[in-house]
Amino acid sequence: MGPGETIALVAVVGGMIAVTILIGGMFKRIMSYKEQQLILTADNTAEKAAPYASHVEKLEARVRVLERIATDRGHDVARQIDALRDTQDAEQSGAGSMLDFEAQEAAR
What we know:
By secondary structure, the chain is mostly helical. The chain is built from three helices and no strands.
């Protein structure tokens, strides 16, 4: 192997190293961009999910009340349904508080 071939080999190996470094840098930038995109998507999703979660909690509370009304036989069901309607009207108007049927039942 002569000096010309050695110089050519060094140039080829150096070129391959340079290309590898460039590809690595590009890959790093692409991954950084994808990570930022993922973070933004997760933040947006969390912001959109928060109102739904609170709405689901309210619905679950109402279903528990309705289940309790449906399973308590012999109690004044009409009064409880009217109280539930009054609670719904108060929630929609922004006034009042939720009725605590468990406390009412315990007071009897």
